[in-house]
Automatic annotation (TrEMBL):
Domain annotation Aminoglycoside phosphotransferase: ranges: 116-268
Entry keyword annotation includes Cell membrane: no
Organism this protein belongs to: Paenibacillus barcinonensis
Protein name as catalogued: Phosphotransferase
Keywords: Transferase
GO molecular function ontology, one term from the record: transferase activity
Keyword Transferase: yes
Amino acid sequence: MNITLNTNILHQALSNYFKKEIVGADTSTIKLHGGTVGNVTLITGTAETVDSQKLPYQIVLKISSKWERYNDPNSWRREYDLYQSELEATFTDALRWPACYYAEMNAEETEFQLWLEYIDGVSGLALSGDMYEQAALELGRYQGKLYVEQPEVLLRLSNLSHADLMKNTYLHYRSWPLVYDYIRSEECDFPLHIRQMLMDIDENSDAIFARIERLPLVLNHRDFWVTNIFYTDGKINLIDWDTSGWGYLGEDLASLIADEADMDHMVEYYQRCVPAYYKGFAAYADAPPLEEHCVYEMILIVFGYRMVENYLHADSDDMKDQQVRILQKIYEIKGSPLHG
């Protein structure tokens, strides 16, 4: 990938990276995964200090442009705003985000760049069950700690997604005839029990949201799926914080368990991760009884209609079959006993 690098900014970022003045650096670039609008590039090379030391480096450049996400218009710039805040001080050695060595917003406030620590480790579907469980445990600890301590930095954060984002997104999907009508139509190819599962959420949504809204309000990552989780040297690193904000206890687990996760182990990971998450939260805060969790309902609220949409827009029978298989696994989750 060819990108134009600002030499002065590169040297500034590397000076912060090494805590030494950098006066020169060669570069090689590799495109990494990019998320919704971000262009993410790994830059490697050798930096030269003012006293002629040669230091190898790896640093990530993330460039994001302005766009508008439904019901969350400022999410495009949220990572920039969070890195400009003192949120970094809330993380622990066991769970953290990548360090930022330089951040800049353009004059028009339509594009920003972040120069970030390169995080390597186990991620995606390579994560093991133990790693899933540790991610859930450490997330619970982090959220419980913040919930109890209420650090001043949280009160000063103005650009966070709102607590009603999950509910409003679900209602938006439910109002879309394409997906709503399909599962109720004679043309629907889903097994009857899958259709009924989705319709039951609609019919009981008021009561479900009443239960959810009694849960603790916590700082959620809101994109806590396997590609954004890195297990490195026994620690959890999280990337891509652009959808983060206030939400209810358990929302992030919906993504961990169901968002393009390991279908063959989805039920097992649900059984292991929900108790681990509640255990982590309870290490700092008074957690609601485990049996009152709403993770199953959150999975369907967040992903149910999205999977119907994916099915209807699938380019192949294999892609359609994958959506049905995921919905079947979610159906199996409902009656499965939790471990621990």
